[in-house]
Amino acid sequence: MKHIQWFPGHMTKAMRMIQSDAALCDGAIYVLDARCPASSFNPKLKGVFANKPLLYVLNKSDLAENTDAFVKAIREKGAAAVKVNATKSGSRRALLEETYKIIAEKRARAQAKGYERTFRFMVLGVPNTGKSTVINLLSGSKRTVTGDKAGVTRGKQWIRLDGFELLDTPGTMPPAFENQTFARRLAYVGSINDDILDLDDLTLALLNDFAVKYPERLAERYGITDFSSPLGMLDCVCTRRGFMLRGGEFDYERAYKAVIDDLRKGRLGTVCLDCPDDIHGLDF
Fold it and tell me: What are phi and psi of 189, to 5 degrees?
């Protein structure tokens, strides 16, 4: 599989905006994809808020497994973390509680001086982790534009809530992926623009990874029993789903898209592409 790299021009502009606006904020809410929390951590974003409180929000927990272990690993590094499913209102209370916790000291000092102040948080993350959906969850209504592909948010949006304001920001990748395993996992979940990817290579890599970690999922969904060859597994996908061209040849293009979509939509079950040990080598 070829080297994955994606840092379009608008991300350079977004990073400058984030660095400039950080001075206006009391802290940050850093949204991670619960299916790959380590892979979706961008150290460049964390560095902007090195001296301010951060809350790591592991979103899309409904599509993930083992999320509690990642929350624990992040907290063991001294950072605040919470898991949510931002599309469900039931996650709102836990998220609000954790948000207030990280500013509790500043809030107490302000109250001791006899005034209430509005606290400002920047909402950060790589593309498609659900930053705008998290803001909508906190606000209790649809206040921002959301989408299921990378790059929906492009400009600056301040959202005013009770007691604090949130600044939505565009998803931003590292300028270079030092860890190509992390890059591949981000590509699987849709955080990297599909237009710059070779979906054939990506799908074969996904099948190979699942053959190691989740062979039973492939067997149940696609009837795969031989996991020795990614291309052989793809043939099973075509057979099970009826992806055929005239002349009896397999329609691999449809199969590539179907497998990737099955993962992203949760049809392959709840997954965790990272492992908690991946957290230990990162500067949370």
Answer: -90, 0
For residue 110, what pLDDT band results from cuts at 50, 70 and 90?
confident
Distance CA 138, CA 161 (A): 8
| pLDDT tens per residue, range 120-142 | 999 999 999 999 999 999 988 66
In whole angstroms, give the CA distance from residue 126 to residue 19.
Answer: 15
Q: In the chain, what is the straight-line distance between the N-terminal and C-terminal CA atoms, in Å?
A: 29
Residue 204 confidence (pLDDT): 98
250: left (phi over 0), alpha (psi -120 to 50) or beta: beta
pLDDT at 163: 77
| CA 56/CA 28 separation, integer angstroms | 9
* pLDDT score, position 155: 53
Residue 173 tokens read as 């990748």
Q: Are 270 and 34 in contact (CB under 8 A)?
A: no
CA-CA-CA-CA dihedral for 140, 145, 147, 152, to nearest 10: -140
The SS3 assignment for 225 reads: coil
Integer Cα distance of 25 and 122 in angstroms: 6
